[in-house]
Amino acid sequence: MEIQQIHKHYLANPIVCTDTRKITKGCIFFALKGDNFNGNKYASEALEKGARLAIVDEQEFAKSNQYILVDDVLNTLQELAQFHRKQSKAQIIGLTGSNGKTTTKELIHSVISKKYKTIATKGNLNNHIGVPLTLLSIKADTEMAIIEMGANHQKEIEFLCSIAQPDFGYITNFGKAHLEGFGGVEGIIKGKSELYHYLTENKKAVFLNADDPIQLNKLGSYIKKYGFSTQNKDYYIIDFLGATPFVQLQLENLKIHTNLIGSYNFTNCAAAALIGKYFNVPLEKIKEALEEYTPNNNRSQILEKGSHQIILDAYNANPTSMKAALENFQQMEGNTKIVFLGDMFELGESAKKEHQEIADLVKEMNYQQSFLVGENFAATNTTIHQFKTFDSLSENWTTLKLEENCLILIKGSRGMALERILDLL
Prior knowledge:
The protein is of the alpha/beta class. It folds into three domains: 3-71, Udp-n-acetylmuramoylalanyl-d-glutamate--2,6- Diaminopimelate Ligase, Chain: A, domain 1 (3-Layer(aba) Sandwich); 88-292, UDP-N-acetylmuramoyl-L-alanine:D-glutamate ligase; 301-424, Protein-Tyrosine Phosphatase, Chain A (Alpha-Beta Complex), CATH 3.90.190.20. Helix content is 35%, strand content 22%. The chain contains 17 helices and 19 strands. It has helices spanning 3-12, 43-48, 73-87, 101-112, 130-135, 156-164, 179-182, 185-192, 194-201, 213-219, 266-278, 283-292, 319-331, 351-365, 375-378, 390-395, 421-424, and strands spanning 16-17, 28-30, 53-56, 67-69, 91-96, 118-120, 144-148, 168-171, 205-209, 225-229, 236-243, 246-251, 254-261, 301-305, 308-313, 337-342, 369-373, 385-387, 407-411. A nine-stranded mixed β-sheet has the order 6-7-5-8-9-10-11-12-13, with helices on both faces. The chain has a six-stranded mixed β-sheet with strand order 14-15-19-16-17-18. Strands 1-2-3-4 form a four-stranded parallel β-sheet. The longest helix has 15 residues, at 73-87. The chain is globular. The termini are far apart.
């Protein structure tokens, strides 16, 4: 069956599903495959639960005219999303980078939705499956779509751009994330820049942080670029007023007080403000949007537990974001500061060196108490408390003898799930 025909079926009830636990009546079920599952085996269950059609790629499961047999279900999902995107009048902003993608995406969404009917990537559905699913959530009246694009190897952003075909794009930064897949920092710069390459080749517009020399180097001669800066008057000036602990910035004559901690979040706010300004969102509405946004899902959250104030940043971590979080924590006011750090994943051959550098930095900062959790941190040469696993930390919790009224930083990669420390406090 041609993609156009599948798209007609989709338009009749524009809901797609890849999980039989989330079937809604009249949806189209895509029987995706993974390393440990075969969605074809669940197609009949999807139909029984109310799906109207099931897209499968194995003949034995195509049992009636409710099944559509294709060569590859994933390819079909991606082709359908690309076709749907071409039919849509929505303007698409593509977003990638090493750190801050999801926060920046949510800030942009908050700002742009003050004026336009806007959709954005849900959570971190930013890969070869998540991007198509986001595109397929674009409705007939959608005016703007913010599409987050994640990548851990070369050519991945290029591929996602071919599906989403963004009209605009922004790269948050180039940090030490997914070093293993990209092959080092230069590989990261090359891989993330695939978004800018797509936009320049297709004569689309680029948003940039003009205080980032890498971005300026990549886009210096490009005409359709719109940047923000704290000092370069060739670009839109946005002043950083500080982060004690919450980020404050000034947009023309307006001072904005956000709910985001850490100076590293200034550029995320500034990018959203710049993009709002470009799309003629009134300044007062930009201020309102940035001040309304509250981080969640373990990203730079400020919480209280007992007598402790906690900075919970356990959604993800890499050497760049870990260093930024520690430097920000050092500047925060607090009598007794405690740090819990978990391993950083996907660093490949750089893992030993990068973990040692963070352990040395923590030692140099001389917090009242510091704890390193995970196999990589446990292998570092340091006098800081080390635990090879979270279970080991938990088992020894009563021996840590934490003081009352502490300011605590918790940060680690998602796989470490260090938010579990909250249950121990």
